[in-house]
Amino acid sequence: QVQLVESGGGSVQAGGSLTLSCEYRDRSYRFGWLRQVPGKETEVVAVIYSRSGGTSYADSVKGRFTISQDNAKNTLYLQMNSLKPEDTAMYYCATGSSSSSHVSGLDQRAYDNWGQGTQVTVTV
């Protein structure tokens, strides 16, 4: 499995910005950023396809978050702007193989390998 290590979480005031990073050892068919809040369903906020560079976003973050990938550094990023208190969550990077290519990249079932997560807290 692809080893994933997230960093960059923290506490920020509403309206602020944070950039999450995820170091990976091997490239994968697609990489996603997922978030979890206790008691709520896991949400895939962004996905990037390694070969094409294509991206998709959840409606809740569209226009505010940007996913990118630097293959030279083996690092995945999530730039988060205009943060809102409802963005508070544990954020995970995850990979999905081509064997699940029939599953939407915005569906958590597309991902079978997750990092350990990094907490993001947005205060009012």
Provide tags for this entry:
four-stranded antiparallel beta sheet, 0% helix, 124 residues, globular
Description:
- The chain is mostly beta strands and 124 residues long.
- Helix content is 0%, strand content 48%.
- It is built from no helices and eleven strands.
- Strands 2, 4, 5, 6, 9, 10 and 11 form a seven-stranded mixed sheet that branches. Strands 1-3-8-7 form a four-stranded antiparallel sheet, with no helix packed on it.
- Strand 7 (65-70) and strand 8 form a beta hairpin.
- It is globular, with a radius of gyration of 13 Å.
- The model has no long low-confidence stretch (mean pLDDT 96).
Q: What is the residue-mean pLDDT, rounded to a whole number?
A: 96
| Largest sheet: number of strands, sense, barrel closure | 7 strands, mixed
**CA gyration radius, whole angstroms:** 13 Å
How many individual helices? 0
Sheet/helix structural class: mainly beta
Described by the principal axes of the CA atoms, the overall outline is globular
What is the helix content?
under 10%
Beta content comes to over 45%
Secondary-structure element sequence? EEEEEEEEEEE
